[in-house]
Design a protein that fits this description.
The protein contains 5 helices and 5 strands; from the N terminus they run βαβαββαβαα. It has helices at about 5-15, 25-30, 65-80, 90-95, 115-130; strands spanning about 1-5, 20-25, 40, 60, 85. The longest helix is centred in the C-terminal third of the chain and has 18 residues, at about 115-130. It is globular and about 35 Å long. The chain is an alpha/beta fold.
Length: about 130
């Protein structure tokens, strides 16, 4: 259900028409660092946009580090996309191992102005308080 960036690269070179990179990151992340030819469908839109993907294609799911893409590959397999896989290490690994022109992106998950980051701050505060007690 997973493949390395090297395996993913070989698949695209050998079977370009039959392989699709599905980038599930937010559009702003895709704009900064993207695999050439990747289809960007943000995770929160995926359920509503499944019809944009061919069920017979090999779909290689990509996120920042490979965690969210693993869950998406499993979801796709359960929903009629039998050849869905996750790329280990995500776009970060791709930029190191395959294409150094793709920039490595730092996402500040602790930015207090971002809703998801506020949740992270709350989580960190709770666990910091437990350690101090």
């Amino acid at each position: 259900m997973t493949m390395t960036p090297s395996e993913a690269y070989k698949r695209v070179v050998q079977q370009h028409d039959a392989t699709v990179f599905l980038d599930i990151r937010d559009p702003d992340e895709c704009a900064i660092a993207k695999i050439d030819g990747a289809v960007c469908i943000p995770l929160n839109e995926l359920k509503d946009r499944l019809d944009e993907l061919a069920k017979t294609a090999e779909i290689i799911c990509v996120c920042h580090h490979g965690v969210r893409s693993a869950a998406v590959a499993e979801f796709l397999q359960q929903n009629g996309f039998p050849i869905a896989k996750s790329m280990e290490g995500g776009i970060d690994a791709w930029s190191v191992q395959i294409d150094t022109d793709v920039p490595q992106v730092y996402v500040n998950y602790l930015n207090p102005f971002c809703e998801s980051d506020v949740l992270s701050n709350t989580y960190l505060q709770r666990h910091t308080q437990r350690r101090a007690a």
